[in-house]
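Posting for a labmate who doesn't have an account.
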Amino acid sequence: MVLEALKERSTLSELAQKYELHPNQISAWKQEFFALAEHVFDAESKQNRDIDKEKDELYREIGQMKVEIDWLKKKLHNYL
């Protein structure tokens, strides 16, 4: 509904009637959307950084496990 209001293809009165809302409510939601829109990208960027950090940690753990497995294989091979 907010996206329709942003497109401005219909008047607030038409949208209010269509969605059975008061035009002031639609206007308030539209203003709130504009006020908070910049934070959508901040949250997405932070989420991407968190994912990258977690991925780096997992790669580090995988690398450590590979070193340990190779060491254990070498020890087992020498034992047999």
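Reply:
Got it, the structure tokens are right above this. The chain has a mean pLDDT of 88.
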